[in-house]
């Protein structure tokens, strides 16, 4: 259903990208991307720098023209619409507030350009929403980073765009402020009910705020889903490594029965749910998140039916209060991460021989032909 | 017995409070500049002002007679010259701004890696003498040159002559020629400050403008122009101030009907035996007049905080 507002714009509708491609010379920044972002959702495009997420965002805003492909807002095609004619607004990475205008005029800017005369109430309301009403007369340079960020948000939101684009909006803030703003942004999005498309390289930020995350890599969407879905069931090694950490173990399938796949890895037999396997024959990669894994000194401690890998040796132990992180080296040299919650169990010192074990239903299986390290470097890069 | 709560005994042997040493370095560093300004700015100005109220002639010497009538002469007898100086310099400033803005804008936002080279090209002509460059315009605007030829074949010369910009079938020795020379000579002074202030504008602000419903023109009007105002003010001042006092262009490219104040002052100083007082009075009038115009301009532009 769509209705027309006073400006004659069509309201409502999903944002649809169809076969969107952007090339710069021989470099393909965005590669045949098709995506539907439902109205009112908080959508995150997550990826390392250079994955094409910002280019995608800029094509939606109109600041970049796609080489091929179409963009729809509801029923309306906006592919060739100039940025200033699109009902889309952006919160820029560096905020791009107008230094010659005070905060009030910055926020009022979009309304004034559309010819609205009486902007006072809307601007005041908007400044109240971001809780900065008292700073209306200040110049942007007199504000802190967090305040500027909120003004940038207010300046975009006040136009009630069909889609609000956020380009690494919290990138310039320190950790504490970033956490605070994540909650704030989520609150505002819930309150105003607009579609937010959020670009970030910070997986935690994406997970905290977004309903749906698209993990991008090399101009393509690697996987799309809810944060929990992506985390629990990564489709590729890239997603498994980029979104949180994963222990990825090369394994070969030995057989399948009753929805359970039996594999062999490190010369030992392990099980994994067939439903959670992307491939159930030949070589696969068995994955398990570090926090699902536990260590024991004695095979006897391992509950019946659990996967267990013996022969490992603790090479590093970091006690960080809520949990203890172990690095366990297998005889083959591969290292496995274990995050054990602090439930009062004994802490294993480096050098201890341990059994590593986990519930088979918590593992997942991936296509065996992929680069097992994919996404791990990208994540480090993004965190740096 | 001492307890922990007891205040420590006052320290007697605290270092004696040092007398703040007088720091002379800034003054010493300022001295050469101050000296220079005194000798070559303050003294000449005072001499000028004093000469403007003297009477006498070159042979018998000049006496300070507080002869304020010199100012009456300086103002009433040379109205045309003041008018020319003002009009030519104002037109020059406006034309320079109109030409310089697009150039500076282009270099600042589209210059990319060529920025420095392009700016160098703007400045390079200044390495040739001002006089020689002005004389070159005699050739450019000569009767058998391309400019006259083109204007003639387009029948534009008749129009410009009717408007009083050119004289007869000539471009040379006309108000238009004077303004052309001035625009040419002062253009870099408009471009440089404009470029500096445009270059400082974050191009992402243009994107923010486009994102917030500004067409390219509106973006320029609402964002670029206000942010480049320091450059506009600076550039126009750097053009107007030397232009209003310039008389080389009028001398070399003009005719007897295009004389400006500078030419008259030169004439009074160098070719009249009793010209010093009135010449000085004219200089003072020009100085005060320019100052008033400039101050009014800055005040009206409301950019004191930007300057």
UniProtKB/TrEMBL annotation, chain A:
A GO cellular component entry from the record: ATP-binding cassette (ABC) transporter complex
Species of provenance: Streptacidiphilus pinicola
InterPro entries the UniProt entry points to: AAA+_ATPase (IPR003593), ABC_SmlMolc_Importer (IPR050093), ABC_transporter-like_ATP-bd (IPR003439), ABC_transporter-like_CS (IPR017871), Mo/tungstate-bd_C_term_dom (IPR008995), P-loop_NTPase (IPR027417), PotA-like (IPR005893), Transp-assoc_OB_typ2 (IPR013611)
Residues annotated as domain ABC transporter: 15-243
Protein's UniProt name: Spermidine/putrescine import ATP-binding protein PotA
Primary role: Part of the ABC transporter complex PotABCD involved in spermidine/putrescine import. Responsible for energy coupling to the transport system.
Enzyme class: translocase
KW ATP-binding (keyword) present: yes
Pfam families, per database record: ABC_tran, TOBE_2
EC number: 7.6.2.11
Highest taxon listed in the record's lineage: Bacteria
Reaction catalyzed: ATP + H2O + polyamine-[polyamine-binding protein]Side 1 = ADP + phosphate + polyamineSide 2 + [polyamine-binding protein]Side 1
Subunit and partners: The complex is composed of two ATP-binding proteins (PotA), two transmembrane proteins (PotB and PotC) and a solute-binding protein (PotD).
Key words of the record: ATP-binding, Cell membrane, Membrane, Nucleotide-binding, Translocase, Transport
Family designation: Belongs to the ABC transporter superfamily. Spermidine/putrescine importer (TC 3.A.1.11.1) family.
GO MF assignments: ABC-type polyamine transporter activity; ATP binding; ATP hydrolysis activity
Automatic annotation (TrEMBL), chain B:
Transmembrane segments: 24-46, 86-109, 116-136, 172-195, 225-245, 278-299
Membrane topology field: Multi-pass membrane protein
GO cellular component term of the entry, any: plasma membrane
Keyword Nucleotide-binding: no
GO annotation terms (biological process): transmembrane transport
Coiled coil region boundaries: none
Cellular compartment(s): Cell membrane
Pfam families referenced in this protein's UniProt entry, alphabetically: BPD_transp_1 (PF00528)
Keywords: Cell membrane, Membrane, Transmembrane, Transmembrane helix, Transport
Domain ABC transmembrane type-1: 82-297
Main localisation: membrane
Top-level taxon of origin: Bacteria
UniProt family annotation: Belongs to the binding-protein-dependent transport system permease family. CysTW subfamily.
PANTHER family per the UniProt record, alphabetical: INNER MEMBRANE ABC TRANSPORTER PERMEASE PROTEIN YDCU-RELATED (PTHR42929:SF1), INNER MEMBRANE ABC TRANSPORTER PERMEASE PROTEIN YDCU-RELATED-RELATED (PTHR42929)
Name the record gives this protein: ABC transporter permease
């Amino acid at each position: 259903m769509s209705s027309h507002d006073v400006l004659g714009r069509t309201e409502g509708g999903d944002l649809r990208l169809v076969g969107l491609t952007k090339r710069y010379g021989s470099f393909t920044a965005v590669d045949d991307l098709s995506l539907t972002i439902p109205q009112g959702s908080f959508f995150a495009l997550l990826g390392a720098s250079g994955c094409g997420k910002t280019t995608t965002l800029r094509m939606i805003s109109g600041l970049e023209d796609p080489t091929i492909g179409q963009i729809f807002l509801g029923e309306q095609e906006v592919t060739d619409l100039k940025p200033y004619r699109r009902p889309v607004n952006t919160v820029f990475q560096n905020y791009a507030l107008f230094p010659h205008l005070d905060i009030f005029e910055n926020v009022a800017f979009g309304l004034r350009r559309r010819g609205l005369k009486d902007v006072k109430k809307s601007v005041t309301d908007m400044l109240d929403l971001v809780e900065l009403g008292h700073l209306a007369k200040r110049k942007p340079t007199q504000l802190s980073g967090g305040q500027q960020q909120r003004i940038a948000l207010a300046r975009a939101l006040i136009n009630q765009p069909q889609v609000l684009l956020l380009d690494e909006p919290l990138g310039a803030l320190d950790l504490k402020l970033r956490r605070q703003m994540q909650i704030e942004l989520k609150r505002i999005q819930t309150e105003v009910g607009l579609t937010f498309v959020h670009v970030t390289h910070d997986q935690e930020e994406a997970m905290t705020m977004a309903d749906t995350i698209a993990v991008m890599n090399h101009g393509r969407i690697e996987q799309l889903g809810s944060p929990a879905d992506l985390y629990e069931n990564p489709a590729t090694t890239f997603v498994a490594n980029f979104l949180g950490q994963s222990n990825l173990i090369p394994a070969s399938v030995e057989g399948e029965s009753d929805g359970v796949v039996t594999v062999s890895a490190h010369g030992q037999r392990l099980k994994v749910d067939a439903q959670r396997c992307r491939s159930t024959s030949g070589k696969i990669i068995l994955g398990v998140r570090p926090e699902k894994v536990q260590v024991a000194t004695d095979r006897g401690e391992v509950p019946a039916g659990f996967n267990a890998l013996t022969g490992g040796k603790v090479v590093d132990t970091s006690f960080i209060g809520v949990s203890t992180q172990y690095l366990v080296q297998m005889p083959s040299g591969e290292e496995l991460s274990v995050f054990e919650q602090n439930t009062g169990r004994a802490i294993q010192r480096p050098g201890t021989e341990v059994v590593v074990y986990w519930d088979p239903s918590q593992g997942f299986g991936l296509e065996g032909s992929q680069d097992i390290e994919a996404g791990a470097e990208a994540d480090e890069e993004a965190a740096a | 017995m001492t307890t922990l709560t007891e205040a420590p005994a006052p320290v007697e042997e605290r270092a004696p409070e040092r007398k703040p040493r007088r720091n002379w370095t800034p003054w010493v560093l300022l001295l050469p500049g101050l000296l220079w300004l005194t000798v070559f700015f303050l003294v000449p100005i005072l001499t000028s002002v004093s000469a403007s109220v003297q009477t006498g002639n070159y042979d018998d010497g000049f006496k300070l007679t507080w002869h304020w009538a010199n100012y009456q002469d300086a103002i009433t007898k040379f109205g045309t010259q003041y008018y020319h100086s003002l009009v030519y310099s104002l037109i020059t400033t406006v034309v320079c701004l109109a030409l310089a803005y697009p150039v500076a804008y282009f270099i600042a936002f589209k210059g990319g890696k060529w920025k420095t080279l392009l700016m160098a090209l703007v400045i390079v002509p200044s390495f040739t003498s001002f006089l020689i460059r002005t004389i070159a315009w005699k050739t450019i605007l000569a009767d058998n040159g391309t400019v006259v030829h083109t204007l003639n074949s387009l029948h534009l010369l008749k129009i410009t002559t009717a408007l009083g910009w050119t004289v007869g079938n000539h471009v040379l020795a006309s108000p238009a020629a004077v303004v052309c020379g001035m625009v040419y000579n002062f253009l870099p002074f408009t471009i440089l400050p404009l470029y500096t202030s445009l270059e400082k504008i974050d191009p992402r602000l243009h994107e923010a403008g486009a994102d917030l419903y500004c067409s390219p023109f509106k973006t320029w009007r609402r964002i670029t122009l206000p942010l480049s105002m320091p450059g506009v003010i600076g550039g126009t001042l750097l053009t107007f101030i030397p232009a209003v006092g310039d008389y080389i262009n009028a001398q070399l490219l003009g005719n007897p009907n295009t004389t400006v104040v500078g030419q008259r002052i030169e004439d009074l100083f160098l070719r009249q035996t009793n010209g010093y007082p009135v010449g000085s009075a004219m200089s003072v009038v020009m100085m005060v007049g320019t100052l008033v115009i400039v101050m009014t301009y800055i005040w009206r532009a409301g950019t004191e905080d930007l300057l």
